[in-house]
């Protein structure tokens, strides 16, 4: 009787072992497909970037199974990392998280959030290219604020000043507005208060970044630290097609 029971268990053990092997094989294949899909995505995205953009992009596909996600028609999350990207000569570090990414590239990504980090030198490049800052303005990154120096004309004198400003996001533009100012040279014994008030009442320095981003990507925040200026971006209309990725936004005015 014991031998009969043992013989009856043998097929079950074999089926169990085969099931484990099949599951293991599935995940091995799935892992191979994930690596292949990520590599293919990296190559396609690199080919689709505008000519003004250079740098390596790493793609990571999230979720438990690439095969299951592909069959379902969309990937739960696709992450893009480009720590050393250059856009029109401006160096930046970019991190993108796209969710609900359809396998049909003609469909828009469900949601996209991204961060764009630029260092102090790159920020100054963007500010000078904006044409809204004093030609001699030099930006310095601080803890939550930007400080910059410049000069203004008062009668026949060039008056130097230093300003502390905050940065905010509005649509496709970063606005840098002075909140404090100090006159540093050129007024002698003249009361500098009216001049300080004049500096504070100046229109913000507006840095439009639409021309650096695919159309439909907008700013939703700016964070300043001594190491970098971080711009947070979002979109719900972007598609992973060459046309969508290479059609850049435009700045009004």
Automatic annotation (TrEMBL):
<keyword id="KW-0812">Transmembrane</keyword>
<protein>
    <submittedName>
        <fullName>DUF2993 domain-containing protein</fullName>
    </submittedName>
</protein>
<keyword id="KW-0472">Membrane</keyword>
<dbReference type="Pfam" id="PF11209">
    <property type="entry name" value="LmeA"/>
</dbReference>
<dbReference type="InterPro" id="IPR021373">
    <property type="entry name" value="DUF2993"/>
</dbReference>
<keyword id="KW-1133">Transmembrane helix</keyword>
<feature type="transmembrane region" description="Helical">
    <location>
        <begin position="9"/>
        <end position="29"/>
    </location>
</feature>
């Amino acid at each position: 009787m014991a031998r009969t029971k043992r013989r009856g268990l043998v097929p079950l053990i074999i089926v169990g072992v085969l099931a484990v092997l099949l599951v293991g094989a599935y995940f091995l294949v799935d892992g191979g497909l994930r690596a292949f899909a990520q590599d293919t995505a990296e190559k396609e995205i690199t080919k689709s970037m505008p000519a003004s953009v250079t740098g390596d992009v790493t793609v990571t596909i999230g979720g438990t199974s690439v095969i299951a996600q592909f069959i379902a028609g969309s990937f739960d999350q696709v992450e893009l990392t480009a720590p050393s990207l250059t856009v029109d000569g401006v160096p930046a570090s970019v991190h993108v998280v796209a969710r609900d990414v359809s396998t049909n590239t003609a469909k828009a990504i469900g949601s996209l959030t991204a961060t764009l980090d630029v260092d102090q030198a790159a920020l100054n490049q963007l500010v000078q290219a904006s044409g809204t800052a004093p030609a001699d303005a030099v930006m310095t990154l601080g803890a939550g604020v930007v400080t910059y120096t410049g000069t203004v004309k008062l009668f026949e004198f060039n008056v130097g000043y230093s300003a502390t400003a905050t940065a905010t996001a509005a649509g496709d533009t970063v606005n840098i507005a002075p909140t404090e100012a100090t006159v540093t040279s050129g007024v002698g014994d003249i009361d500098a208060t009216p001049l300080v008030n004049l500096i504070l009442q100046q229109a913000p320095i507006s840095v439009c970044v639409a021309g650096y981003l695919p159309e439909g990507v907008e700013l939703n925040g700016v964070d300043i630290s001594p190491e970098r200026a971080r711009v947070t971006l979002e979109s719900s209309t972007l598609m992973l097609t060459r046309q969508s990725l290479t059609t850049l936004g435009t700045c009004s005015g």
